[in-house]
Specification:
Number of strands: 5
CATH class of the largest domain: Alpha Beta
Radius of gyration: 33 Å
Number of domains: 3
GO molecular function: DNA binding
Helix content: 40-55%
CATH superfamily of the largest domain: Ribonuclease H-like superfamily/Ribonuclease H
Domain Transposase Tc1-like: 66-134
Strand order of the largest sheet: 3-2-1-4-5
CATH architecture of the largest domain: 2-Layer Sandwich
Domain Tc1-like transposase DDE: 145-298
Protein name: Transposable element
CATH topology of the largest domain: Nucleotidyltransferase, domain 5
Pfam family, one: HTH_Tnp_Tc3_2
Number of helices: 14
Strand content: 5-15%
Shape: elongated
């Protein structure tokens, strides 16, 4: 089968050899209108090459496009309408839609800002100190660490995000709405885990905050059994953050009396370095799917889903720490993707 280019060339070749338009139409090589259009274009341009359509001219030059990119990078949260106004002051009259297209050409896509704790200079310095100290550790070394933390759980899915798929007009359909209440019941839990799987989990009584007395009791009743169950007589290391109750003198003395080694010094505002934060997120999604309707059911679901977490998942989270540390060092103490 002849291609379009071959057909075009054949029509012009016959025209040059004295064939009339009618003669070429009789060959049925192409539709009549196509044949006459090819001949007409050839007479006007003297070539069989198709002239590239010019299209609508761009409203901005490459230099002006680079200016727009600099404006956006100077203020990442500026809207396309605001950028269009500032661009206009530089002599470019363009719509917000044109602004978005130019930015897309440079790979600048509008996305929801990631939420991360604010890092002070001290936080960044402490993060670098911690990561440099443990940069040579392998997955085997991290397999000897028990990570711990506290986390809040709320009713009606308020503890995590929920996405729904809906059709037009279904935004407020009952199945597409996440219920909220003014003062949701909140349950605070403490848990720990290692590469060997999840450890103990305890739920604090309602309206009770973790203080040094509760924390010491939790360590005695929950941590020590976990250490015995997962490591036996093998030496392990315990991780906790720098919360005030964690740094109390009575807690420091307790760790010394129990001969428990502490990982650290832990840097503040660094949940991205602690894999248990990812474990909490997974647990909250699983709990939200069960849709508990009261505090008792919420506690029941939390305990059920906690023990259902597999060792494979726990091990993968522990093994990710080496990548977290490498990324923080590469970014000079800034947040990593975890």
């Amino acid at each position: 089968m002849v291609t379009c280019k071959e057909t075009h060339a054949a029509i012009i070749a016959m025209h040059k050899n004295g064939f009339t338009g009618k003669d070429i139409v009789d060959t049925k090589i192409a539709p009549k209108s196509t044949i006459y259009r090819f001949i007409k274009n050839f007479k006007e341009r003297g070539s069989i090459l198709v002239k590239k359509a010019s299209g609508r001219p761009r409203k901005s030059s490459k230099r002006q496009d680079r200016l727009l990119k600099r404006i956006q990078l100077r203020d990442r949260s500026a809207t396309s309408a605001e950028l269009a106004q500032e661009w206009q002051q530089a002599g470019v009259s363009a719509s917000a839609r044109t602004v978005r297209r130019r930015l897309l050409e440079d790979g600048l896509v509008s996305r929801r800002a990631a939420k991360k704790p604010l890092l002070s200079k001290k936080n960044i310095r402490d993060r670098l100190i911690f990561c440099r100290k443990y940069s040579e550790w392998t997955a085997v070394d991290w397999g000897k660490v028990i990570f711990s933390d506290e986390a809040p759980f709320r009713l009606f899915g308020a503890s995590g995000k929920r996405l729904v798929r809906r059709r037009k007009g279904e935004r407020y359909h009952q199945s597409c709405v996440m219920p909220t209440v003014k003062h949701p019941n909140t349950i605070h839990v403490w848990g720990c885990f290692s590469s060997k799987g999840v450890g103990s989990l305890t739920i604090l009584p309602k309206n009770t905050a973790m203080n040094k007395e509760w924390y010491q009791n939790t360590l005695q009743q929950q941590l020590l059994p976990t250490i015995q169950q997962q490591f036996g007589e093998e030496q392990c290391i315990f991780q906790h953050d720098g919360a005030p109750c964690h740094k109390a003198k009575v807690i420091t003395k307790w760790f010394g009396d129990q001969n428990v080694e502490i990982l650290g010094p832990w840097s503040g505002n660094s949940p991205d370095l602690n894999p248990i934060d990812n474990l909490w997120s997974i647990l909250k999604r699983r709990v939200d799917k069960q849709k508990p309707t009261n505090s008792d059911k919420l506690q029941e679901v939390i305990k059920k889903e906690w023990v259902a977490i597999s060792q494979d998942l726990a091990q993968k989270l522990i093994e990710s720490i080496t990548s977290r540390i490498a990324e923080v060092l590469k970014k000079k103490g800034q947040h990593c993707k975890y």
